[in-house]
Structure formats: structure tokens, C-alpha cells
Amino acid sequence: MTTSYPAPRHPGYLLAPRATTVDDLLPVARDRAHRWYSRAGLAPVHKGDKVLILTYPDQDQLVLEAVRAALLELGADDVDWLDVTDIGFAQQEYSAADGWREITDKLDLMVEQGIEFCQEATLLQRYLEDRTGYTAVYSGEAGRPHWRRTTSGAFRNNWLYNSYESFISRSHSVADPLWQLIDQLVVERFTAAEAVRITDPQGTDIGWDVTEEQADLWAKGAFISGHILGSTIQGIRFSFGAAEFLKQAEILMPTLNGVVGGTGNHTGYFPHASVTVERGMITDISGGGRYGELWREVVERFADVHYPGFPYKGWAYFNDASIGTNPKGHRHIEGLWRNAQPWTNLPERTRAGVVHFGFGAEHWDRGFLDYAKEHHLPTMHFPHIHSYFPTFSIRQRDTGEWLPLIDKGWLTVMDDPRVVRLAQVYGDPEAVLGYDWIPAIPGINHPGDYADDYGHDPVAWIDRDQQGEFAGAGGA
């Protein structure tokens, strides 16, 4: 067992006795109503706003009423809410034990129905066509740019307060200016890049080269608050239409080689999978149980298509290596095994230093989207693998030195004097910037064997870890 990785931590405060009245929760709701940064902020609230909140069927009603009261206090004229079943979304139950659903729940909707992002967004777009009076819409768990496209100018932010746990989470209490500074400094590091290499103890070892022009374009396209695009090629995609993107892809993709390994995605968990990438394309997927089987089928099914703006045939492109930047982000306890939201495991990717890898040809260029719809092809990347202890290194163009942006899961800009100085405004920097959650993984930061105790069946282990059983044991 290695002792070089940080010891497990668990956000035990989430298990404390709960509030029972709206008045008890109103102070928290007022705080959330004044937050403006990243996905959870509800600000700005304008006087006269007509607000629509789109929830899932398991919405905590006490939380909803507290937020509604806070928005009305700030001057909103009306606060309506719907759950997704009201606009045509079929009620289902999801579990993080079914990580394979990340493929099945996305693929048919894109291929058969032409859904560009998610069904809920498309249904909301149709609902709002005849209801133009809303000035603020809160909806969805992620994908802010996609929701903006489907709700015109009314979209204000995601709605992350379906559960009591998410509502009280410290991840939504990180000071806006502090979190913004962290994100800015991460993106600043990209401008000096000549090459990138990402490794982790679950088997990831992948990298690519970066030209001087690409480093500049990457930095310009990488900034999404709380969700920094750590893949150069994805950042460039945000800067270019499909035709122009192709020029950069033809240069970068041949240098993009390696392996991505892990056991978690946005939907949940699966037996250890290892994905081999050569020249920017998946060439092999080993393991993964049912998730791996379904993923291999997708690669084979679309192997001969040629998307506009992409250099090779096939769908199976390396797409993203996005970086979480919130020190208080955590894997949720409530609802992990029983939830009405499709992306059951999405919250864990927000924690600072977690990298989530994504795969699949993707572009928002209209020509790309129209081609995909016409030929019944996927339009979005959708299989993911989460990395909890990555080392993300950037080779400096001016010196050739490799510097870690992430070191064994620790986001190194947290040590920047500017971040520490600002954190001091809010309290002890060690407490303000310290992680609340670090998963326990045997053979990495906890006693045991990775393959025997975890890799073949991570669900059984995580079921114990999410209750804090391993926190404080093993590790560094």
C-alpha cells in the first residue's frame, strides 16, 4: 500500500439533525440567494422577476419553500415551480449502482429523437414556447451553456437544491470571490503549456502536446466557473466553428495518447475500466462490466461515420479532462442509491482536484449538429471516468520544466499566496481551503488490495465509505 496519497475524509456534518421548518432554513436560503458564482448561485435576483424553478419529483419541499421565500424577499414578483414530470419527463428511479446507465440513458435520446443535450432541456424549451413571461429560470444539474441555448435569455442558473443535503452543503458556501480566483489561476496555468500529462493510481497515464497558439486558444475557451476544461482540444472547440476546429485537431490529436482508468462516472460506478487512446481515438476498452460492454458497442456502431470538423472516422474521440475546483465538493450521501435525477453521481466531480474524463465526438457548430441529427448519430460526449487522485502536470514552454497543476488530487493553486491571502479574509486558510471529502480506496490511501477489495465491485465498498466508515483510517 502506498502512503503518498491523502487520507480519507468524510463530510460528517451532513449527518447532523435536520431543520424542520422554513424559518429554520431561511438563513441558508438567503445566503444561497446572494451567491452568484458557479452552478449553484441564485443571484442576481431582480425586482419584478417572474421565476420558474424546474425540479425533479423527489424535491425537498422544505428547501423549495425556503428558497422561494428568500427570492420573494429580494423582490421577485412570483416564484413558480414544476417538476420534470409536469413537462413530460417520465418518472424513473436511478441508482449509482448502475453506472452503465450513463450510456443507455443518453444514446437512444440523441440517436432516435435528435436530443442535443438532455430530454429535460428539450421538454422545457417546448414548455416555454407559449409561456414567455418568465425572466428567470433555474433548471438542471449541469450543462449551463446547453440550458441557456434551450431557454433563450431566461435561464439564470442550474438548480442544485433538490435535496436537503445539497442545500446545506459547504460546497455552496465557498466565497464567490475566492472560488473565482481559484478558477482564474487554474486557467492562467494553461497559457504556458507546451505539453500535458495526467496520471493517477487507478491506471490513468495520458498526455498530449500543445502548440503556442493552442495554449492561447485553450485558455480563452477553458473557463466555465467551477468546471475548468482541462482538455486542450475541448477548450479549443469552444473557440472555433467545426471547420476551423479541424485545423487544430489535425495538429493536436496525433500527439494525444495514453490510458484512462477508473470506476466512477456521472451516473454512478462500475467495475474497473481501462480505456486506451491512440492519436486521440479510443482503440481499446477493457473491463468495466456492463458499462464496458455497452461502451464497446457504441465505439463499434459508429466506427465508420465521419463527423464534419473531425479528422478521423468514428465517434470514439477523447474529449475532456475537466477539473473540479471547489475545496468543499463531495460525493453525496443522500440519494446515492435511490434518486429521481439521472446523474446520480454528478456532485463528486466538483471537488477541487478531481478530473473527469469524457469521450465522444462533440461540437456545437450548427453544421455538426444537423449532420448528426440527419444521420442519427450521438451529438454529445457521454461516457465518463472520474479520477480522484490525479497528478496533472504541465510542461512549461519557456523552461521545459514539468509543474503540477494537480498533485495526487491536490489542486496546487490552493497554495498560491494570492489564494491563501484571500482565504484568510474568510477564516483559517487551512480550514477554508481544506478538502471536506476524500474517498477511501484500498491499495491507494487505505489498507487493502485495489483489485480484490475495490476494483471488481466498487459499489459494495462505496456503500460503506459514504457513511464515513473509513475516514481517518490509513492514508498518509
Protein architecture, described:
The structure is a single chain. The chain is an alpha+beta fold and 476 residues long. It folds into two domains: 20-171, no CATH class; 174-410, no CATH class. The protein contains 16 helices and 16 strands. An eight-stranded antiparallel beta sheet has the order 10-9-8-6-5-14-15-16. The termini are close together.
The outline comes out as globular
Largest sheet: 8 strands, antiparallel
Structural class call reads: alpha+beta
Q: How big a fraction of the residues is strand?
A: 15-25%
Number of continuous helical runs: 16
Secondary structure tally: strands: 16
Identify the strand order in the major beta sheet: 10-9-8-6-5-14-15-16
Kindly provide the radius of gyration, computed on alpha-carbon positions and rounded to a whole number of angstroms.
Answer: 21 Å
Q: What is the count of structural domains?
A: 2
In whole angstroms, the N-to-C terminal distance is 11 Å
* Fraction of residues in H or I helices: 25-40%
**Residue-averaged pLDDT, rounded?**
94
Low-confidence stretches: none
Give the helix/strand layout:
Layout: H1 22-34, E1 50-55, H2 61-73, E2 78-83, H3 101-113, H4 119-128, E3 136-138, H5 144-150, E4 155-157, H6 164-168, H7 176-190, E5 193-199, E6 205-209, H8 212-221, E7 227-228, H9 232-237, H10 242-252, E8 257-264, E9 269-278, E10 281-287, H11 289-301, E11 318-324, E12 355-359, H12 366-374, E13 384-387, E14 391-396, E15 402-407, E16 410-411, H13 417-426, H14 429-433, H15 450-455, H16 458-465
